[in-house]
Amino acid sequence: MTLPPCEPGGPDPEAVAAFVHGWVTSPAMRGLVTHFGGEPPEGAGTAALLDAVAEFSAVWDFRAGVRERFDTARVGYGPGVDERLREQIGALGLGGHPRPAHDTYDHVVILGGGIRVTLGRVDYAARLLAGGLKAGTVAGLGSLRWRDDREHREGIRLGLGPLDTEADMMTAALRRFLDLPEPPVTHTGDGWWHQVWPDRDAHVLAAASTRPPLRASTACTLLGWAEHVHTPGPQDRVLLVTNAPYVQHQHCDAVRLLGRAYGCGIETVGMDDAATAEWGRPLATTELLQEVRSSILAMRNLYRAVTRRK
């Protein structure tokens, strides 16, 4: 139950509103909320229901609002309960689809993250391109978040050399899987930099934060891409590459921030089983519940945007 792709021309407000209503009122959502002691309000409109579920979802904030995803608290719910929770979470479509719907995209945009996540996403995108997917531009997005000791050690173990930031990890991944040389061009600005390989139309953007002192979020990198790498138009198709269980909320953000603003088509895919097996790791149920919360918040933001609610 994943929000469908946004076609070129921008999102259809009625279709988006109908999907959001069906998603937030689904048996899976009700089952999760009631399991943790909540009660979705009967007969409430979509906006009120989203507000209620978003407020309740604080019970699933295992990052305490600010921790990185790999620091999410892990809680065991025991045999049987854990399986039921995961079944309900799976019905909410957080992982999306692993295969793009089309053979050609104007832009392929790879979202950044931790070192293994970044490598997996770029590996997957590179295999799509090697398998015949056509793209006008390829861009890897990241932030100036400093890698922690775990990522530093993993980068050394993988032979990637010293990596200072999340965006440096993206550069190393693109060079590894797309066989790129040292970037010949680097543009810089206030809190951002943009590396370009003109002959390949490949890019890495270290986006500035729109919410300092917090680091740049996925939303910041999407906005930075449109400003510094390529401004999409209503005729463009943009393919975002990420991984489960982040497809749902990152797709909602992209439709809201790019699809609505520029009228471009937006499709978001999660990396396939091969990339997941090599680069991923098993996620705890609390980590999945955290992404249910992220999806609720992103869905509410998108609903408000398409219905012009403040």
Structure description:
The chain has 310 residues and is of the alpha/beta class. It has two domains: 13-95 and 285-306, no CATH class; 104-279, Rossmann fold (3-Layer(aba) Sandwich). The protein is 45% helix and 15% strand. The chain is built from eleven helices and seven strands. The chain has helices at 13-24, 27-35, 46-56, 81-91, 115-130, 149-157, 166-178, 218-229, 247-262, 273-279, 285-306, and strands at residues 104-110, 134-143, 185-189, 192-197, 202-207, 237-242, 265-270. Strands 3-4-5-2-1-6-7 form a seven-stranded mixed β-sheet, sandwiched between helices. β3 and β4 form a beta hairpin. The radius of gyration is 19 Å and the shape is globular. The two termini are 26 Å apart.
Topology:
Layout: H1 13-24, H2 27-35, H3 46-56, H4 81-91, E1 104-110, H5 115-130, E2 134-143, H6 149-157, H7 166-178, E3 185-189, E4 192-197, E5 202-207, H8 218-229, E6 237-242, H9 247-262, E7 265-270, H10 273-279, H11 285-306
Parallel strand pairs: 1-2, 1-6, 2-5, 6-7
Antiparallel strand pairs: 3-4, 4-5
Helix pairs in contact: 1-3, 1-11, 2-4, 3-11, 4-11, 5-7, 5-10, 8-9, 9-11
